[in-house]
Amino acid sequence: MAAQETDVDMNEWHCAKGNTVLSTSGLCTCIRVAIVGEYPTGCDGPDRFLVHISESEEGNEAATAMSNAVSKAMEDHGFKITKAALVSPDTSSEDDEYFSEWVQGVIDSFKKLTDGEVEVEDHDTNEIWGLEINSEKEIFYGPE
Question: Which domain range does residue 39 map to?
Fold first, then answer.
């Protein structure tokens, strides 16, 4: 059976399981986070989560909602994070202190959620990147 693909738009998050691919693209000054894991308890819940956020109220709400969903899966069903990746703009390519603080705040928040086990990759804000979690729960990111 072919994988079902779900595109995660700006300031949205999605979770999935089974044969579903989560992806997002067009990433310049946004932050994206991918989290995959498993349920040693046998729960049949979502095992992959992806968010694509901008520096906005909607973006912060999406990041909080995904973080809460992962936390709930951990607390209620024993979800264990096996890999997490966060792709962010390199703030040294921007001359905006507020933007730099926002990026660092998001990084810190997801480091806390993952007990520091998040792979952080930054890129120049002039580059367009993509991020994907495939149906095998592998995380891929890089220039488009």
Answer: 4-134
Alpha carbons 47 and 83: distance in angstroms, whole number: 11
Name the nearest CA neighbour of 82 among 130, 47, 110: 47
At 86-109, the pLDDT tens digits run 999 898 877 789 999 999 999 999
**DSSP 8-state secondary structure symbol assigned to residue 127:** S
State the CATH number of the domain containing residue 18: 3.30.1330.200
Q: Is residue 104 part of a domain?
A: yes
Taking the C-alpha atoms of residue 78 and residue 132, their distance in angstroms, rounded to an integer, is 24
Domain assignment present for residue 49? The answer is yes
Number of H helices, E strands in the chain: 2, 9
Cite the DSSP H helix spans in 78-96.
none
Burial of 68 (0-12, 13-18, 19+ CB in 10 A): exposed
Q: Residue 141: pLDDT above 80?
A: yes
| Number of domains composing the chain | 1
Tell whether 140 is covered by a domain. Answer: no
Overall pTM > 0.85: yes
42's CB contacts (< 8 A; 6+ apart) are none
- Across the range 41-51, mean pLDDT stands at 97
